[in-house]
Amino acid sequence: MSTDTQDRDTTDGFHLVINALKLNDIDTIFALPGIPITDFLRQAQGEGMKVISFRHEQHAGNAAAAAGFITGKPGICFTVSAPGFLNGLTALANATTNCFPMILISGSSEREIVDLQQGDYEEMDQLAIAKPLCKAAFRVLHAEDIGVGIARAIRSAVSGRPGGVYLDLPAKLFAQVMDAEAGKKSLIKVVDPAPKQIPAPDAVMRAVDLLKNAKKPLVILGKGAAYAQADAEIKAFVEKSGIPYLPMSMAKGLLPDNHNQSASAARSYVLAEADVVMLVGARLNWLLSHGKGKTWGGSSSKDAGKQQFIQVDISPTEADSNVAIAAPVIGDIGSCISAFNQAMGSGWNKPPADWTGAIAERKDKNLTKMAETLAKNPPVMNFHSALNVIRDTVKDNPKAYLVNEGANALDFTRSIVDMYEPRRRLDVGTWGIMGIGMGFAVAAAAVTGEQVIAVEGDSAFGFSGMEVETICRYNLPVCVVVMNNNGIYKGTDVNASGGPEMAPTQFVKNARYDMMMQAFGGVGVVAKNPEELRKALAEAVSSRKPTLINAIIDETAGTESGRITSLNPAMAKKKA
């Protein structure tokens, strides 16, 4: 039922969904139009909601996930049924793994037809498929239950450990009509959707006592700490304690990367040597070698238990997932860190000087070495000489969002480009997947209005590159920098058979990615040296126009699998 024909005394499913979202301060939808949601999206836009329409559902879903991380409110993605739902499901599963609050809402076939498998248009039991891959899943069959469905989805997405939620809305639900006043009363304004969880005082004191007696303490900040938006509390804790800290990738900028307590430039040393490690919104997964092995100063069995761990997390089941946690502190990050700040008191003794001094010495050595590398200007740009320019640009524009994906493009950017503000770095997260780039970039620009710089490997860009049209269509201040070295990892691989076909990891030589942006009315630039790259970046940031810089990188630059070669069986076999 359209807006212009709607009886003033009645309402319909379209408006109930729209009004339920607006009632809960949700004003942006990421979507891809199609049956049965096209009319819904038209009406949502007509009712004043911001509707960002994508070219592929996965990227709309990634945008919703990134919006959730940035804002703390669930990002909303609408898709069509069956294939569209499945495209969005990848983003939903990734959001759940990364603890980003997101709601995937998909149209679907009618239950009576699906259950009898009678062959409806895009027939699929979407709820059953979604359940194992998200935090919660619900279906709404009646218009009077829309308010409850939206409320349950919101609360599920943001309470406790955040994650993805699926909401199934069969096509005929939208056209259902009910009394307008009854419909209004059926909607729910969710009160305190993510209530504080106060840590137990004895748990806090147990952890504080461990830190007091530590000779080589270390704090590791994860993206959960960044998501918590407890920036002031975390800064006060780190500086009051004097403990060196190591930010995980998306926690960079929670404190400025040039902070004197940052141990990023001595990462290997502090992980191997620390005796008490405090995890704040960080998990001991593969990104931290599961808390075991050579990374932590031993082998899988030798030196086991050398470190003692404190884990601050909202989920009690996260403790002991890989190693014994000596002091679990369960609660929301803000409440936990506030409790630590109180428990430390005024007479806190900072870590021994020999520990902080040893870290400072290694930091200085490694930063000096890095500075020398970045200062080089080879005839053809490599990752270092190109990223040195981006490093300077981000330093001059600290509020800009940095989106980053790839193999080498990810690894080098993470270690070279410093961040100065919280939640400004958006990257591949826990799964390390490709394809988040343009969705994350669109979300950051759309929900904040800030400049976005997306550093993409040429392979990673291929997963979502068509969304540059979306960037141009909405005239978003996004500058995409494609590190073009003609292939996956590098462009020099050869066909092992000796045949004429290109190797699986090779791309078309000297591809003109910049012309893709030009095709849709944006600015496309080729940069063959740091000077050209610096000029193009400065113009993009100044103009705020959609821009793609095709940064030509030495095709011999890059290594197989970036810095996770150990996960590549063939490469591991070669090393053995």
Structure keywords:
single chain, alpha/beta, Rossmann fold, 3 domains, 6-stranded parallel beta sheet, globular
Outline the structure in words:
With 576 residues, the protein is α/β, with parallel strands linked by helices. The protein folds into three domains: 184 residues, Rossmann fold, CATH 3.40.50.970; 160 residues, 3-Layer(aba) Sandwich (Rossmann fold); 198 residues, Thiamin diphosphate (ThDP)-binding fold, Pyr/PP domains (Rossmann fold, 3-Layer(aba) Sandwich). It contains 23 helices and 19 strands. A six-stranded parallel β-sheet has the order 3-2-4-5-7-6, with helices on both faces. A six-stranded parallel β-sheet has the order 15-14-16-17-19-18, sandwiched between helices. Strand 18, helix 22 and strand 19 form a beta-alpha-beta unit. Helix 12 runs parallel beside helix 14. The longest helix has 23 residues. The chain is globular, with a radius of gyration of 25 Å. It starts with 9 loop residues before the first strand and ends with a helix. The relative contact order is 0.09.
Report the total helices. 23
Straight-line N-to-C gap: 67 Å
Number of strands: 19
- Largest sheet: spatial strand order: 3-2-4-5-7-6
Q: Considering the protein shown, what is the CATH homologous superfamily of the largest domain? A: Thiamin diphosphate (ThDP)-binding fold, Pyr/PP domains
Average pLDDT, to the nearest integer?
A: 94
Q: Indicate the CATH class of the largest domain.
A: Alpha Beta
Number of domains: 3
- Rg calc: 25 Å
Q: What is the CATH T-level topology of the largest domain?
A: Rossmann fold
The main β sheet shows up as: 6 strands, parallel
Based on helices, strands and strand pairing, what is the structural class? alpha/beta
Bin the helical content: 40-55%
Strand proportion, as a percent range, falls in 15-25%
- CATH architecture of the largest domain, by name, is 3-Layer(aba) Sandwich
Query: Looking at the structure, what is the overall shape?
Result: globular
Uncertain parts? 1-5
